[in-house]
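The passage that follows is intended for readers who have already worked through the single-chain material. We present the inputs for a multi-component assembly, then the predicted structure in tokenized form, and finally a short commentary. You are encouraged to pause after the input and sketch how you expect the pieces to fit together before reading on.
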Amino acid sequence: MRDVAVISFAQAKNQRRVADLNEVEMLMPVTGQVLDQVGMTIDDIGFTCSGSSDYLAGVGFSFVSTLDGVGPWPPIQESHVEMDGAFALYEAWVKIQLGEIDTALVYCYSKSSPGDLPMVLTRQLDPYTVAPLWPDTVSLAALQARALIDAGRTTEPEMAEVAARSRRSALDNPNAQLAWDRPAGDLLTEDYHVAPLRKHDCAPITDGAAAVVLAAGDAARRRVERPAWIRGIDHRIEPMALGLRDLTVSASTRLAGEKAGVADGPVDVAELHAPFTHQELILREALGLVDHQNVNPSGGALSANPMLAAGLIRIGEVATRISSGEADRGVAHATSGPCLQQNLVCVLEGES
Amino acid sequence: MLTAPLIIEYPFKRTTGPVIGAFMTGLRERILVGSRAADGRVIVPPAEFDPVTGEDLTEIVEVGPGAEVTTWAWVTEPHAKHPLDRPFAWALIKPDGADTPMLGAVDAGSIDAVHTGLRVVPRWADEREGRIEDLACWVPERTTPANVEYKRS
Amino acid sequence: MTAAASTPHSEGAPLAITLPASLQGVELVRSVRTPAQLDYQFTAGAATSRFLRGIAQKKILGERCPVCGKVYVPPRGACPRDGVPTSEQVELPHVGTVTSFCVVNVAFYGSSMELPYTSANILLDGSHLSLMHLIQEIPADQVRIGMRVEAVWVPDDELKPTLESIKWFRPTGEPDDVNVDIPGEDHGTGLGSWVGGVAPIDPRGTH
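Having made your guess, compare it with the prediction:
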């Protein structure tokens, strides 16, 4: 295995609606910043991999347009996934492991605001027996939350605590979209959105973008003082049919966490991609972080959830804390699909 | 900033294959079916492949129509695209004889009428052509004449 | 497919399905209709909005890359060569050269065009990206690469921020520009086929 590190991370300020820019205009400052921070240009990059989905804004082949924003001429080596940027990072990491390149640019973006996001996301469901019913994302998450409550493994007050803590942490995150300080008890007085979920249990709808630069060995050490080394990374998927899964646990996260080596050392910080409060509890259990005191210090996806980017942002938030010396070892998680269907776990470490 | 409405239509007609085809045929005939997995479990809707071993599943068996809610969520303000235009419950619903639940909408009237374990039966669409919408929604079993007879017997 | 990857039903035989008694003898469903519609509020972005506002004033506004100097029309906000924003607007003439074309002989949904018609890539003078539009006022079989064309606009009171404000392009009657610089051709990925198979003489003498 080659040592590969996150050496730069940038994200756009997360917003409910970026109305005045198209996707490449929204992305370009982010890809520009992530390279500038480490004194690189696209000519220094061996491989570029992006994550986006045309369904979100209804713009066909938007990833081809956004590629313009990195200056892809003469033709660069590149690839694209219709997945969160964290999965694009995985592809770039594999590419670097192959040994032919030492550096990679990973970026991702989404504008969810032009469409009806919870309904757009129904298009990822089984097209014969589920998608024609248009079960929105919030409703599916509510089914999962109910199952967890029925199993005696969480309560609405506990979920409200997750909401309150996340938005309070987000007060320190200048890129957060939702940040406030309200006691959990107050939140429970609000009406249900889709019972048993209240609005505060759900991530906001966000337009945003994020980017990371990966570098191997000396290419990383040469450019930054303290690279955030990827010590383990793995992703796993569960069946498409919700009825085939036990929604109260995340078997795929547990396995990915084991393969990535989460338990092989102390965890100073964890950023878990949980778009709904109860999902943080499921993920904590799957990763052995039930009582951990430093989960989602950025505010997590509950404070800003740009589709296709919120997972890569988790990796970036952990890497930033390692590079700054605030943490020595951290865990980042990204999810995709309904009710935590697919999960990626990444363990990052600084050199002592 | 210039903006304009944009409508994207997907006018798809999808080939079912024999397994999903059997499920859709069943809906048209007001019959629920699943497939028997390698370990004997019955999966609904039926699956082409065993979810654990990956082997072909070929035995289609009848299940239901009675069924049980295994988890649910209450929609106060239905979306125009939702199956019902009044408050309803989404639920995972396990038909009798099946080992896995399927997604459906339950027309229960009020949130107080729904609970995990609730017994439900299908309400079939008047006009059926072999698609998931043939199963218009599910309703609590107690409101159906069939169940009244069952309790009397 | 390799032999190792083949499964019983991939060899052509359909899966032998056992049906319950209640479904035996009924006609089996083979396909389902799954129509779906998604509604969006599309936003044009900054560069495209600038371009379309220009069109509503009967102006064609390209944007220049501050690094390589190329002018893109319609602008998307980024130079695909240098990866930087294009912010300098350049008003372009309404005259250009056909760099490629095709003759459409089949009707498609949503089109009201009379067949056959010609759709062409047109490089406006002073720009470095061809835009796609219709060629009219000349028989389809006489359209050729290198032909000089000009925009034909809708009446002034019908101008709107849409490319449909240009009805089509028509021949100017000028001599053909056989040396038109086809975008991308300098990189060896150009559009290629010249009428009669005769390539133009490269005025720069190099490639």
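Commentary: Chain A has twelve helices and eleven strands. Residues 23-36 of chain A form the longest helix (14 residues). How closely did your sketch match?
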